[in-house]
Amino acid sequence: MNPSPFAQPYPTRRTVLRAAVAAGATLPLLSACVTGGKDDKPASAAGAKSATNPLGVKEDAALEVVIFKGGYGDDYAKKAEGLYTQKYPKATIDHKGIQKVGEALQPRFVANTPPDVVDNTGAGRLDLAALVGAKQLSSLSELLDAPSFDDPAVKFKDTLLPGVVEDGTFDGAPLVLNFTYTAWGIWYSKPLFASKGWTYPKTWDEMIALCATIKAAGIAPWTYQGKYPEYMNDPLLSMAAKTGGADLIKAVDNLQPNAWKADGLKAAAEAFAELAAKGYIMTGSEALSHTEAQAAWCQGKAAFIPSGSWLEAEQKDVAPKGFDMVMGAVPARTGSDKFGAAAIQAASSESFIVPSKAKNIAGGLEYLRILFSKQSARSFAESAGTLPAIAGATDGLTLSSGLGSTRDAVNAAGKEAFTYRFRTWYAPLAKAVDDATGELINKRATPAEWADRIQKAADALAKDSSVKKYTR
Amino acid sequence: MKHGRLRFLIGALLPALVLHVVFVLSPYGQAFYLSLTDWTGVAGEAHFVGAGNYARLGGDSLFLDAVRNNAVMLICVPLVTIALGLFLASMLHLGGRSGRSSIRGAGAYQIVYFFPQLLSLVIVAVLWQFVYNPTNGLLNGALRAVGLDGLARSWLAEPKLALPAIMAVLVWSSVGFYMVLFSAAIDGIPKELFEAALLDGAGSWATFRRVTLPLVRDTVQVSFVYLGITALDGFAVVQIMTVGPGGPDGATEVIGLSLYRAAFFYGKFGYASAMGVTLFFATLTFAVLALRSGRKERLELS
Q1: Could you read off the pLDDT of A245-285 as tens digits, one per residue?
Q2: Alpha helix (H) ranges present in A151-203?
Q3: Nearest CB to A435: which of B17, B20, B247?
Q4: Which residues form the ABC transmembrane type-1 domain (chain B) (predicted)?
Q5: Most-buried pick from A18, A126, B14, B64 (CB within 10 A)?
């Protein structure tokens, strides 16, 4: 800076700016306001516990419910709120149906004034592991052990489908309750297969043989949502899990050394590399978004597509009449698989949480007890076209082709419904697996390289002391 | 008198200054502070971890990919955009014999070239995503229509092509604006200089190199800074268009995307802030260097 040629008795632009910089420099001290929330736990409203009020809800305590208003809407949540006010007429419910849950709630969590129940779902949701790490979630064990809303003789947790409690358990503490149940598999059009005389393969050898037939008929055997390679991960990892059983899944989730080099994973990676090498994946799939790939599949350009059970609802307006999509379990890779042929990857989603600093925790838990009742779950299944995470909720309902096939697959799998947890626990590892699978499917990585690079990422994560570790 | 002046100055400046400090400087300050903590974004407290976040950046291979890609973009995007912008601007002006009079319909060309600037970058990205679609996209369709089937590609899914494809979109979306900017700068050059060049027997190229270019140099320099900052960002286009996004396999990762993922998907706001602070200093350094480099000669026009 040039020295001023003459003395200035009043502030110049420059001195003012200098003062502003000085003020800016002191700000880190003031910046405590980002993280200034106190950790004192405010007293949460509570009432007397009784047989009809097992969670001790304070009758006139207000309840604030925040619901992700996505594909399922939020009417199902409002219905449950209606049941809640029926039971507690003095309570007022503040309902918010929003899309960007994270954006709206992050400041409230930081300020320790969160709502009482949150449906933490959608693209803009808050990272669950981060919430858990910051001790922002209430334990749900009291709710799990409470009698269910429909039948006081049955405990709440016994009304849930297999895996739902585990899906929401972090370090032994149940903190999250998922409302919907998603199964993953390989989808095809039933009428198309019937007209061509194709049967859905039970083993991978049959799959490869069928792919040759399909290709000869002028249809691409497979397509996938290329922009998001994780879609192809699901059948690949399902196949590996079926071969290696629960031990393989555990080793992967627990970040054990060389877990990704297990025979089951190697064989599955080779299977999908073969699919790519033989040209059984529709050309151009690798650059298609999920909507584009799924549209191409609905137009009959490809026979198979991997996806979760939301596919039917997502394709509602795209699938032609009589397309009648159904989901099949991922074919078995070997004759000596640890899981049966009907085993599927299934997990619950649509995560409901009760913040630990909520004003009305008991009310939040009670709301979940009502939401997860059979009556509420049934009306959800009918309006949303998705399986709720409650056992037998859809029994006796007439379901569409895709949802019916999902329910049948879930029933057929029974206890052999499995899921990997590393995606929720370690988002960076999930990203590494996605990238690696994208390279594998596009023939830029061999199965061995695929396993190597994922193992490297898993090892790095295992060594990283800044990441909270979970075990199962 | 002087006293009253001081009071007036403070009264006039203070409100604006307070707003600036609260809404601009303090978030900056907070970001600097958060980059030294392990804040998760949802916790009420953050623990000080010193320079740990910065140390980790060096070992984060995806972040290094991002730095590499941003560096490539920093070199290519401004150079190509400015070259094209200058080319188009001088084409519009060099049509006439005086070296400056416009060619017929120059105004119409300017308007057409300016169109992309009117579209939001998000819309541009969505449109180009369709153009690059490997099966029914405009680009491959055009190639196939003229019999160049062999050149049709999965533009965004091939690691070698994805970044150039993204840079092409950035260039396309900004070249019109810079053409108009350079046009205006050329309009500001005194006519006599072109006439003198013409009398001396200078051709079009010589006129451009010896007269036009040196006289629009300042404008080019400022453009370079603006474009460089655009290239150091690139988040919106990458996030919307690319495989992954940021892929395939990190081929189009940019710092902004790494930052976004770390903050909003991994719950590492502290680490993300460290990336942001790094990007801030990279941008600042670049801008200072770019503006310093051309300070030597400044021509006085009549």
Answers
A1: 999 999 999 999 999 999 999 999 999 999 999 999 999 99
A2: 164-167, 190-196
A3: B247
A4: 67-290
A5: A126
- CA neighbours within 13 Å on the CB side: how many for B237? 29
pLDDT value, residue A335: 86
CB within 8 Å of chain A, chain B residues 225-244? 242-244
Chain A nearest-CA residue for B153: A284
pLDDT at res. A298: 94
Q: How do the domains of chain B map onto residue ranges?
A: 31-293
Among residues 13-52 of chain A, which lie with CB inside 8 Å of chain B? Answer: 16, 20, 23-25, 27-28, 30-31, 33-39
What domains are defined for chain A? 63-174+354-394 (3.40.190.10), 183-346+420-463 (3.40.190.10)
CATH class of B31-293: mainly alpha
Coil, strand or helix: which one is A311?
helix
By Cβ distance, the residue of B154, B244, B267 closest to A129 is: B267
Which regions in chain B score pLDDT beneath 70? Answer: 1-2, 94-102, 294-302
Query: Hey, what long-range contacts does B121-130 have (CB within 8 A, 24 or more apart)?
Result: B121/B173, B121/B236, B121/B237, B122/B236, B122/B240, B124/B169, B124/B172, B124/B173, B124/B237, B125/B169, B125/B236, B125/B237, B125/B240, B125/B241, B126/B240, B128/B169, B128/B172, B128/B237, B128/B241, B129/A289, B129/B156, B129/B240, B129/B241
Q: Which of A55-59, A123-127, A354-358, B71-75 is least confident? A: A123-127
The verdict on A102 touching B (C-beta cutoff 8 Å) is yes
Question: Between A119 and A122, where is the model more confident?
Answer: A119
CA–CA separation, A155 and A461 (whole Å):
38
Average pLDDT, chain A: 87
DSSP string across B206-229: HHIIIIIHHHTHHHHHHHHHHHHH
Dihedral-angle region of residue A255 (phi above 0 means left; psi in -120 to 50 means alpha; beta otherwise): left
Residues A353, A55: Cα–Cα separation, whole Å: 16
A130 neighbourhood in chain B, CB within 8 Å: 40-43, 266-267
For the segment A183-238, what is each residue's pLDDT rounded down to a tens digit? 999 999 999 999 999 999 999 999 999 999 999 999 999 999 999 999 999 999 99
Chain A residues lying within 8 Å of B264, measured CB to CB: 102, 124, 127
**What pLDDT does residue A365 have?**
95
- Contact between B220 and B82 under an 8 Å Cβ cutoff? The reply is yes
* DSSP type of residue A392: T
CB-CB contact of B271 with B29 (8 Å): no
Name the phi and psi angles at A216, rounded to 5: -65, -25
b vs e for A306-344, b when ≥16 Cβ sit within 10 Å of the residue's Cβ? bbbbbbbebbeeebeeebbbbbbbbbbbbeebbbeebbb
Residue B297, burial from CB neighbour count under 10 angstroms (0-12, 13-18, 19+): exposed
> What does the pLDDT average to over A155-163?
90
Report the chain B residue with the minimal C-alpha distance to residue A461. Answer: B60
Do the chains contact at B30 and A134, CB–CB below 8 Å?
no
- Cβ proximity of B214 and B299 under 8 Å: yes
Gap between the Cα atoms of B283 and B286, Å rounded: 5
Residue B285: count of CB within 10 angstroms of its CB? 10
The answer to whether the CB atoms of A444 and B30 lie below 8 A apart is no
**For an interface test with B, which of A21, A35, A231 has the most B Cβ atoms less than 10 Å from its Cβ?**
A35
Q: Give CA–CA dist A143/A155, Å, rounded.
A: 9
- Chain B interface includes A355 (CB < 8 A): no
Establish how many alpha carbons lie within 13 A of residue A166's alpha carbon, considering only the half-sphere containing its beta carbon.
Answer: 14
Mutation site, B243, B259, B266, B284, interface A, largest A CB count within 10 A: B243
